[in-house]
Amino acid sequence: MAKILVVDDETNILELIKFNLEKDGHQVITTTSGEEGLRLAKIEQPDLIILDVMLPEPDGLEVCRRLRSDQATSMVPVLMVSARGDTLDRVMGLEMGADDYIPKPFSPRELSARVKAALRRTKHKKPALMTSRELKSGGIVLDIEKFQVQVAGEFVSFTPKEFKLLKILMSHPGKVFTREQLLDRVWGFDFNVDTRTVDVHVRYVRQKIEPDPANPTYIKTVRGVGYKFSENVSS
C-alpha cells in the first residue's frame, strides 16, 4: 500500500508500530536514530514518516525541521508521536511542519486511522500541485509546480502547511476565509486540531512575507471572521 518510515528510540514501540502497519499491508522501514531517519528519508523516499518527539539528539522536532527544509523530503507527510501530550509539544510539532500529532499511548486502531487519513490527504492534494502557474502579488512570487516562494527576489523556505495556506489566500485575493474554512482546506476535517492552529500558521507566514508583520500588507485579519489576502498590493 505505502512505504512508511518509522523513527522511534523505544524498540518495543517501534516493533509494535511496524507489526500493525505491516498487518495493514504497508512496507515499513524502521530506525532508532534521528540522523539515520534523515538519511533513510532521502534514500527511501517514503510516502509517510512516523516520528517520535523524544529522540536523543537530534530530537524529533529538529528532525522534522530538517525534513521540511530539504527539498527532497519537504512534502512527505510527517506524523509525530510523543509520550508527552501537552499542548506546547503539539503546537511546536505543528510549527515545525508536522501533519499530525498522536500522544502515547495510542491504540493500533487510532494509529491505522491517522495513517490512512494522512495518506488520503496527500493523495488528494497532489493534482493541485501539478500545475505550471505562478501566483504573484507585490514582491511575492509563489510557484505552485516547484513548491517555491520568492519574497523581494529571495527564496524563502515554507513548510507544506504554510505553503498551502499562502497558496489558498493568494489564489483568492479579497476573499475572506473563516478559520474553519482554512482549517478544512489545509488540514482537512479528519485532522484533530482547532482554529488556533490557523492563527499560529498565519503568524509564521506573515513573518516570512511581510515587511512589517505587526502591520501586515498582504494577509489581513478580518476581525471576528478570519483572514483575506489583500487585493491592492503594488508591485
TrEMBL record:
SMART domains: REC (SM00448), Trans_reg_C (SM00862)
Single GO biological process annotation from the record: regulation of DNA-templated transcription
DNA-binding region(s), residue ranges: 132-231
Ranges for domain OmpR/PhoB-type: 132-231
Gene Ontology cellular component annotations, sorted alphabetically: cytosol; protein-DNA complex
Pfam families: Response_reg, Trans_reg_C
Domain Response regulatory: 3-119
InterPro entries (UniProt xref): CheY-like_superfamily, OmpR/PhoB-type_DNA-bd, Sig_transdc_resp-reg_C-effctor, Sig_transdc_resp-reg_receiver, WalR-like, WH-like_DNA-bd_sf
Keywords attached to this entry: DNA-binding, Phosphoprotein, Transcription, Transcription regulation, Two-component regulatory system
GO molecular function: phosphorelay response regulator activity; transcription cis-regulatory region binding
4-aspartylphosphate modified-residue sites: D52
Known role: May play the central regulatory role in sporulation. It may be an element of the effector pathway responsible for the activation of sporulation genes in response to nutritional stress. Spo0A may act in concert with spo0H (a sigma factor) to control the expression of some genes that are critical to the sporulation process.
Protein name per the record: Stage 0 sporulation protein A homolog
Species of origin: Desulforamulus profundi
Lineage: Bacteria, Bacillati, Bacillota, Clostridia, Eubacteriales
